[in-house]
Automatic annotation (TrEMBL):
<feature type="domain" description="N-acetyltransferase">
    <location>
        <begin position="11"/>
        <end position="148"/>
    </location>
</feature>
<dbReference type="Pfam" id="PF13302">
    <property type="entry name" value="Acetyltransf_3"/>
</dbReference>
<dbReference type="InterPro" id="IPR000182">
    <property type="entry name" value="GNAT_dom"/>
</dbReference>
<dbReference type="InterPro" id="IPR016181">
    <property type="entry name" value="Acyl_CoA_acyltransferase"/>
</dbReference>
<protein>
    <submittedName>
        <fullName>N-acetyltransferase GCN5</fullName>
    </submittedName>
</protein>
<dbReference type="InterPro" id="IPR051531">
    <property type="entry name" value="N-acetyltransferase"/>
</dbReference>
Length: 177
């Protein structure tokens, strides 16, 4: 049985399981989609397998990490979202990636709003960051619609310009995990 984290009007967001490997490879192995992520290189199956291990560790350490996104009534992941701390950075960073066939339908914005609410209400997180390629206009639109504001461009560890987006929750969380 999958462990539900939260749901939105159209989606169910749950913890990863080993059976998600095929979907991870479909999303993160897609060269076109990954041109916007990290160094722009798609991930191999072995890298996706390692990411599962890292995510399971994050669940134990922080209570959160990356999650699978399913459409209600469709029991396969269409993408992934999560709250992570790359390189053990202090501020929580939101990440998301979806199958290209799911782009442009408002799913990413809907799920991102739910993810921020989950992080705030369940884990007491008040500030979030997201990082994008400066030319990734579609992701910028998703972040803005979810309430994130653009920050100052900076040069990342790969020497590429990165556009950060920042979010601050305005209400005190009602509960903490």
């Amino acid at each position: 049985m999958f462990e539900k984290v939260f749901e939105t009007e159209r989606s169910l967001v749950r913890r990863w399981c080993s059976a998600d490997l095929d979907e991870l490879v479909k999303v993160y192995g897609d060269r076109e989609a990954m041109k916007w992520v990290g160094d722009g290189r798609p991930l191999s199956e072995s890298e996706c397998r390692e990411w599962l291990v890292v995510t399971f560790r994050n669940y134990k350490r922080r209570g959160y990490g990356m999650f699978a996104v399913e459409l209600k009534g469709r029991p396969r992941a269409i993408g992934f979202c999560g709250i992570v701390h790359p390189g053990d950075q202090e501020e929580p960073e939101v990440k998301y990636a979806y199958l290209r066939c799911c782009w442009g339908q408002g799913i990413a914005t809907e799920v991102l709003r739910g993810l921020v609410a989950y992080g705030t209400e369940v884990h007491g997180l008040m500030d979030f960051v997201a990082t994008t390629a400066p030319n990734n206009c579609a992701s910028h639109a998703v972040l803005k619609k979810a309430g994130f504001l653009p920050g100052e461009l900076f040069t990342d560890e790969h020497g590429d310009l990165t556009q950060p987006f920042l979010y601050h929750a305005t209400q005190t969380p009602s509960s903490k995990a």
